[in-house]
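Thread: Protocatechuate 3,4-dioxygenase alpha subunit, structure

OP (GT): Posting the sequence first so everyone is looking at the same thing. Length is 181 residues per the record. Can we get the structure tokens written out before standup tomorrow? I want them in the notebook alongside the other entries.
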Amino acid sequence: MTTPSQTVGPYLSLGLPWEDGPTVVPEGTPGAVWIRGVVTDGAGNPIPDALVETWQADPNGRFDHPDDPRGRVPGFRGFGRCPTEPDGSYGILTLVPGAVPGQDGRTQAPHIDVSVFGRGMLDRVVTRIYFPENTDANAADEVLRSVPEDRRHTLVAEKTEDGYRFDVRVQGEGETVFFDV
């Protein structure tokens, strides 16, 4: 006996967001920047019911986690969660991360890990946000170097007046690079 197929969601807006989820640091924190963007589908249409999660180090390259005993920046949570608006937009208020340890004693370029959940997606997609001012660090970053050169731009945010813009294209022409984790 076969069962009918089902799509996943839209359920994300029912239980996953929380009031201060988009604020990795409190508003008014010195040095805070907005990471804003739009999540779109393969046809370039906005996805109004996706969820964007971020996980990152603080400006000193430290994580707000018990496994990282190096200390932490007061008020810095390291984790953000923002549902998309009807126009597919999202915004996360955070601090630009510092470089973090990589494999074999190498350093990874400052980046933010991003997961995107959405209707019809059985699994999240995972990507990274790199910052355009870190040209040398980005060029040396082992993960970014593993991406074909003509697709790396999909992982580098664009500098804006109050922070950065990072759009996520889930599939199709100009698809954001996603990692199998």
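GT: Both are above now. Quick notes for whoever picks this up: The chain has one domain: 12-169. The longest helix spans residues 135-140.
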